[in-house]
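Internal QA ticket QA-208
Title: Verify multi-chain structure generation after dependency bump
Assignee: T.L.

Test input:
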Amino acid sequence: MTKFTFNRRRFMSTAAMTGAALASPVYLRSASAAGGEVNIWTYNDFVPKSFKKQFEAETGIKVNIRLVDDQGKQFNLLAAEAPNPTVDIMTVAGHRFLQFIDNELLAPLDTDRLSNWGNINPTFSESDWATINGHKWGAPILSGMEILAYNTELVSQEEAMTWNTLFSEKYSGQTAYIIQDMMSIVMLMLGYDGNMVAYMDNPDKAAAIVEEAKQFLISKKSLVRKYYDSGAEVQQMFVNQDIALGHSWNGPAAALINDGFPLGMTIPNEGSYGFVYTYNVANNAPNADNAYTFLNAILASPEIGASMTKASGFISTYKDASNYLTDLEKQSTSFPEEQIANLQFFRAEANKMKYGLVDPAVEAVKAA
Amino acid sequence: MSHEDSARKNHDDIVQYSATRPFWGRLTNWQPYRLLLTFATASPRRQFIILAAFPLLWLLTQHLGPMIQMARVSLLESYPVAQGAPQNFTLDNYIRFFGDHIFWMPFFRTLTFAAVFTFCTLILTYPVAYFLARHVSRHNQMLMLLILLIPFWVGEIVRTYAIMILLGNTGAVNLALKWLGLIERPIPFMYTSFSMGLGIVYLTALYMLLPLYSALEKLPKSYTEVAADLGAGAWTRFRRITLPLTIEGISSGCTLVFLISTGFYATPVLLGGPSTTVFAETIAGFFHYAGDEWPTGAAFAVIMFAAALFITGLFQKLMKALRRGDTK
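Actual output:
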């Protein structure tokens, strides 16, 4: 097995990011020495360390980061603090916008205040999901997808082209997945719309589909090694060789590939779902001006987008960010055209009905 | 000594005290401080109230306060309550538990695991406590206790990760077994009830050990020596003397470990597998959902709390009966 050169890679990566940051133009020149602070809730590695350091030095604005690992937790925290939140910028997945907007937790994004808005690939910034009620609500920063990750020394790519391998006897006790995410994928595997938009007018059918997916996962429970929650967990299971394959987000899997671990990933033939992480300004943000200064700065150059990709493994939404990636990094953040064709984005329209059915089903699978 | 002499002596003492301890001396002579002291110690009742005020305030705000808030949330229709919206109270969150058997499995699993792990911890730590209290010299006891305490200087998560490093497929145990030629493929210890149990026993051992050590240490050696002189064998001495006289320690240790075990979250999440979901994970699930699920989570937490207290109460009654039976 290839040696897992974590320390060396991390050192080189940090050195490269620092070098890129030092060599980059002073993108914060326009930001006056405003001072104060900006409070951000985000996932690990979504704010590059070198960028944070330079931003703080050049603007005098202290960046306070609170790490989150779950959209639901973030919603609950924000809802508990409303209408006077302590946070300025959150990281909301595009398909979860509606929930936050309906509860008046987000402020519409004033893109006129972001001179670097044009640096985002329009595929993301101008998508249909990005505009709700005539407003933009977030700046897309990273894109991710639900993929099948596999140890290339134990599982062939051919096997990894179908989700069925995840539920096969051959790999009994060597698989892991996030149940809630797998519910959507299993619905897709069974030939249904995992977004449940198609059943918005037919709640009985939606309930029957969720029940079928639930029963499927319960019947396969004896084959799974672990139901996990965070990207770090699945990374650790692969590194410890506790699992041979598993459902994952592409970010954590790509990070392992970039670290030299023998991991492959596919978007299986049955299909999968993609999502986009966005930076959003909280309604009544205590430091809204600093939040816009931060957003404009982080959107300033493709190098920053690339460094976010290097650190998190997710795909950058910035134009030309891939120019700053190594060949291995490009490989770990791209998929063949025929696999991309299997991908569709998560949609939010039926979320209330969908998660009203899926959440109890998840508990049932865990409890079974 | 006349009153004047005594007053002069007191004055001299204060002057001398002020000279040797300038700050405290000045403070004692400071008029507002003297007034405050006179006011606070005017009567035993006032002294008691002032002394009890801080602990009571601490208990109310840091212990009872959050529990009362949790109980209140469990009765709300939704939480957080939207701005301007009325707070409606309901019992639906409790009914949901009793009406949906999905939740019973992790609930009873948690209670069963907690009972089994408590028993295992008792069995494993009793000999250690016995050895420490009865066979180690008093001088070395402190050193031994310190050594036993070392793992507890780091947090629960770090110690849980230590177990993961030991039990993983590429962990120390599997590597050792492989090196010894006992296995060809790693044994999947992780993500099973075994790994979770080991983790919980390891994390709670100290809470069992200290009450046991305290009970055993208080037991006079002469009791067992007399029994031996009268012909009682080792097992009889343990069964008839040591065990009954350490029931209090067993009771305290078991209560502590059981209550802690019912509330463990991180360890089952990190070490447990698909078939070891505990009730704390179910409760946490309600707090993760992006919706109005906090009241259900709070209600479930109250149910777990009440059940754990009820079982502990029964256990204490049993222990009390055993103690009473023993002294008859």
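Spot checks passed. Chain A has 14 helices and 13 strands.
Status: verified.
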